[in-house]
Amino acid sequence: MPAKVRLDDVARKAGVSLTTASLALSDQGRISADTREKVFEAARELGYLQKKKRIEAPVAESRDIAVLLNMDPEWSFVLHLIRPIIYEFEKTLRQVGFNTLLVPISRTDTTAVILDKIRCSGAVGVATIHFASLELILLLEAAGIPVVVVMNSTYQDRVYTVCVDDFQGAYEGASYLVKCGHLRLGYVDCERLDLPVLPIDRFFGFKKAIEEYRLEFDDSMRLKLPLDDEDEQLRAIEALVLAHPDMTAIFALDDDVAVRVVEMLRRLGIGVPSRISVISPGDTLDYSLCFVPQITTMRIDTTYMGRIAAQMLHNRIAHNPEEIHVLKVKQQLVRRGSVKEDRHAP
After folding, report:
1. How many CA atoms lie within 13 A of 102 on its CB side?
2. N or C: which end of the chain has fewer CB within 10 A?
3. Per-residue pLDDT reduced to its tens digit, 81-95
4. Which residue has the higher pLDDT, 1 or 70?
């Protein structure tokens, strides 16, 4: 089966940038006739135009803003985390006369399908939470529909973004463990689809703290946890603990991973935090529920993120600024008792 033709394939064949290709195909921007024809010729040769639907510019009277929300089951664990984003986003925009529409999407949706959903909504602006497709964003921007990406830093150098400072948050979380007296730290992460930069930033933030405090750490102390098999999770955590009996703390990628680590340690008869402490960025879990393990986290202020994202998008609609803005939100330590603190530690 031939590979699906993407906008960047057209841009590469035409010898132009991705933005130029997007503007040319949508009849937007100041693109020369020669360049526009070159792009269209590349698109025709690759069969790109036959697979795409032209998105129509929204009517000027529309006061609707679309929020793209991934409804795939594997993303259900973040709904508690992003609910304050949506609530504050909607409240802030309502104050300036805009309505907010939730547009459900899936990872299996093509760019054309998502574009059609947005076109049908009549939205004059789009916010997308976690999901970020550069092809989709450039096509929307070329059609005069401004986009703000929330909680995904993958394209922060090219699109308006409100995200979390994952590097600094992980650095401060790991530093807190060291200050509590933990000098042998394990790291447990997993694969997070559609968020390729997040695991990288958090791990390197963790590693920065390890290096600054001159602690020992090697690849055997880093574990990628399989999320769909509890037996494998148990074996993996057991192997990590047996390989490093002097390990006293684990930094988890997020609190969805952390709660799995705590459960596996419990099954192994290892107390948290009496024997091993656990910390993670968060809060994807609802800690008001009695059955949720209380994980010490580097908390993400999602209410603030929703407000800033709304203000950024409204400013784009009202004033159309040219310079791309990126805002990174700092994480705050929330102690919930999963980290053992040594008051005599430095």
Report:
1. 11
2. N
3. 999 999 999 999 999
4. 70
